[in-house]
């Protein structure tokens, strides 16, 4: 049974989310402020966190940033739940390390679909980051994508990738030269597609480029195909 931590200060929303998750068989733990939410995340190490942005004590973006820097809890998938629907707010949430961003008011069915999509990447009993994949390594030049370790290496040095960044890079690398639209990538990597979510892909592609470009000296491996989407360079 997957354990989900819900950090939400609106009681009615907390109860709605908890009810729907428990009805689907999830174990739910919850709190209504950011500071205790961060502590619970570190102590309980849940399989996924649903995180509101506007929280007392410590806001959701601060919680997300602190989690992302934590060696033990940094790989826990985070789904932000927020009433702030502006594009800048969504991008900021993703920049802080969130895997997904849902705007209030939301459909419980949509929330469950996204939660299940993230948890589908892990097998029962595994912790986030320990994906149930064959022990394969994909080597492209000095870049190595290791399924067994769920890690990315360049020149033998491990790079700091979140689980969703790893999955996106691996999918594109496994299909070198093939162009994918943002919608296709959401379906293939995130496990869902809802209209208006394509910005999520853009943010994560930018993160990957930064980590395999400015930080390592690798040329841009993921190309933008104008008017279509993205592809991993075929001749890389």
Give an overview of the whole structure.
It is globular, with a radius of gyration of 17 Å. 38% of the residues lie in helices and 21% in strands. With 236 residues, it is α/β, with parallel strands linked by helices. The strands form three sheets. It has a five-stranded parallel β-sheet, with helices on both faces. α2 packs parallel to α3. The longest helix has 14 residues, at 198-211. Mean pLDDT is 83; it is low at 123-134. It has eight helices and twelve strands. The chain folds into two domains: 3-119, 3-Layer(aba) Sandwich (Rossmann fold), CATH 3.40.50.2300; 137-232, Winged helix-like DNA-binding domain superfamily/Winged helix DNA-binding domain (Arc Repressor Mutant, subunit A, Orthogonal Bundle), CATH 1.10.10.
The coarse silhouette is globular
CATH homologous superfamily descriptor of the largest domain: Response regulator
Given helix and strand content, the structural type is alpha/beta
Q: What Rg do the Cα atoms give?
A: 17 Å
Structural key phrases:
single chain, 236 residues, alpha/beta, Rossmann fold, Arc Repressor Mutant, subunit A, 4-stranded antiparallel sheet, 8 helices, 12 strands, 38% helix, globular
């Amino acid at each position: 049974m997957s354990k989900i931590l819900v950090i939400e200060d609106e009681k009615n929303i907390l109860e709605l989310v908890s009810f729907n998750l428990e009805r689907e068989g999830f174990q739910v733990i919850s709190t209504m402020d950011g500071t205790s939410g961060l502590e619970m995340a570190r102590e309980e190490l849940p399989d996924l966190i649903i995180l509101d942005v506007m929280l007392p004590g410590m806001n959701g973006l601060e919680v997300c940033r602190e989690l992302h820097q934590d060696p033990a809890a940094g790989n826990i998938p985070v789904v932000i739940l927020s009433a702030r629907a502006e594009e800048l707010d969504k991008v900021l949430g993703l920049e802080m390390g969130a895997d997904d961003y849902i705007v209030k008011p939301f459909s419980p069915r949509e929330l469950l679909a996204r939660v299940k999509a993230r948890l589908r990447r892990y097998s029962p009993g595994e912790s986030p980051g320990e994906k149930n994949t064959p022990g394969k390594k994909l080597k492209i030049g000095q870049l190595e994508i290791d399924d067994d370790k769920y890690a990315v290496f360049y020149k033998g040095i491990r790079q700091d990738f979140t689980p969703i960044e790893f999955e996106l890079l691996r999918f594109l690398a496994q299909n070198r030269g093939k162009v994918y639209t943002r919608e296709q990538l959401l379906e293939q990597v995130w496990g869902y597609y809802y209209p208006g979510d394509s910005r999520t892909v853009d943010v994560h592609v930018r993160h990957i480029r930064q980590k395999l470009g400015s930080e390592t000296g690798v040329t841009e491996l993921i190309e933008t195909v104008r008017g279509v989407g993205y592809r991993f360079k075929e001749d890389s």
